[in-house]
Design a protein that fits this description.
Blueprint (H helix, E strand, L loop, with lengths): L2 H5 L2 E2 L5 E2 L1 H4 L7 H16 L1 H7 L1 H10 L6 H8 L2 H10 L6 H6 L5 H10 L16 H15 L9 H9 L4 H15 L9 H17 L1 H9 L5 H9 L10 H12 L2 H17 L2 H9 L3 H12 L4 H10 L4 H21 L5
Antiparallel strand pairs: 1-2
Helix pairs in contact: 4-5, 5-16, 6-16, 7-12, 9-10, 10-11, 10-12, 11-12, 13-14, 13-15, 13-17, 13-21, 14-17, 17-18, 17-19, 17-20
Amino acid sequence: MNHTQESEKVLNSYGFFVSPDELNTEEIIDARVARRREQKWLEMFSQWPKFIQFRFDKVKSRCRKGIPASVRGQAWYHLSMAKYRQENEDRNCSTGKLFSYYLTKKPDSRIIDDINKDLPRAFPEHEMFQSDSCGQQSLSDVLKSYAIHDPEVGYCQAQAPIASVLLMHLPPEQAFWVFVQINEEYVKGYFSDGLMAIKVDAAATELLIQNVSPKGYRLLRKLSVDPLLYTIDWYMTLFSRTYPAPQIYRIWDMFFCEGVKVIFRLALIIVRETLEVGPSDLVQRAHRCDNDMDLAALIKQTAKQISVDDLIEKMNKLQISDLDLAQACKQARQQLTEELRSKPKRK
């Protein structure tokens, strides 16, 4: 971006530098409605165990409507159970605060180098992560602390945008514990060597496409499209590189409440829209593709063009149950395990 382009950028209400045209497209919420919704969330926080145990449908409904920006960070902190994880870990920490203890340690020098390289790339268009802002140091603290917390995983480049979005809503210590929960409870194994968990979920996505979009599935098989081609960026960054604010926040509101199935549902809707039920010119363009790379690129391009409100509405109507998802993941895991066994071993 040159100096002239930079000078034309303005700061939006989410902390991003955008063009004036983009500023005019921001969602406008009536202040009285926002305050009323905020009060409902504050009431839920004060009775959180009761709502989670006995009124979870109400929590889910409010997450699907979108969490008010003023309480979104604390909602994620509660929904992910990071609040209780932190309290438990700190209670058993001899130094009082486990995150503070991690900050006194240093991971492997190669990890530090990799993190330092990625800090300026995380969200350079956000005010927090400008070179002269505090966000890069907070991001470094969270990522290095996680590398100490889980040395087997260490650091993966896709973790940086996830941690960055958390830091837009939470102080570093709370962001760290939500990040721990994402890694260990929501998408366990996504950042491990070999990416086996990502490969399983990509293969499971393809199996589910067979059910929700038979026509689309046939085209994917005809061109031998590896599902990793279009899912790996979505899944490893939890769509944070696909959708801008506040759309990505709406998706994460649901993700923290309902789990990884939200990510699957979103992927399935995007693929089905592109290959079968979307605008006729889009579907025709998809079926004119004659190679796997072009079709995968079109699917990823379509993801950025469908409004998130439309996606969420269609996601909530998608006839895919938790059992369907579990069975697809089990089948995908078995298939990948068999493929690995059948490969000749290197001498």
